[in-house]
Amino acid sequence: MKVGLVTDSTADLPKPLREGLGVRVVPLYVNLGGRIYKDWEEISPAEIFQKVREGTAFPTTSQPSPEDFQRTYREALMAADHVLSLHISAKLSGTVQSATLAAQDFPGRVTVFDSQAASLGIGMMVLRAHELLSQGHTLEEVLSELDRIRKDHFVRFSVATLEFLKRGGRIGGAQAFLGTLLGIKPILTLKEGRVEPAGRARGERKAREEILRDFQTWAQGRKRIRAFFLFSAEENAVKELKEMVLSSGLPVEEALVSELGAVIASHTGPGTYGFYAYSL
Q1: CA quadruple 189, 171, 58, 207: dihedral sign
Q2: Residue 49: beta bridge partners?
Q3: pTM, two decimal places
Q4: Is the pLDDT at 174 greater than 60, yes or no?
Q5: In 64-169, beta strands by DSSP E
Q6: Angle at 113 (CA atoms; ends 108, 119), nearest 5 degrees
């Protein structure tokens, strides 16, 4: 059985990579200043942040419609027997709901998978699924591996300001206040698909050191780890953290470095950096 892969734009996979692998992407939308833009196609994070600085209202985002998914599934099923559709956490977006509604039009031919992740947390699962399918693994075997990764992976990120997360309703107001207090840097994670605090540190260097300590604890006993580094607008934001992780003496390989797309960046703001990792 030939399985085609579909994801959404919040997987933040670079266009040349996803096109080279034949992964179809359904874009989410950014609403800014009365206009609607397709994520990764019609607006960049840099443009969003510039408009916010100029006084344009903060961006909001919206999920694809079931019709968006129906079109993509129809195209994918012309070249495949089945579609595996991997998406942003249902607790962060209604994207899984739209995909599930669309899948009902193709009974038994579309499997929707809630990654319970965002950005490269989705992307790393898409890449792993492609790898396994290319090796001849069955859909059931792929889903079993994706479920393992969903239950056992590492993610930490830090933001320059919690204002974007607060305005987008992705984290509580008390946490937003804490992040602005006396130069404290928030360290965040995703737990069961929700953004949650994982720690705090005074200043960038301390934040990176705490992230590294958390990662070292998680990585103990693992023989091979793939790390996926992410940043918002400025790659230098993640450069030092990446060097710390790769020189830690742990069995880590750099799998990908990618910028956050416009939808995720609309919720995290500029200066965000962090990484996802899973073990083989």
Answers
A1: negative
A2: none
A3: 0.94
A4: no
A5: 82-87, 110-114, 154-158
A6: 145
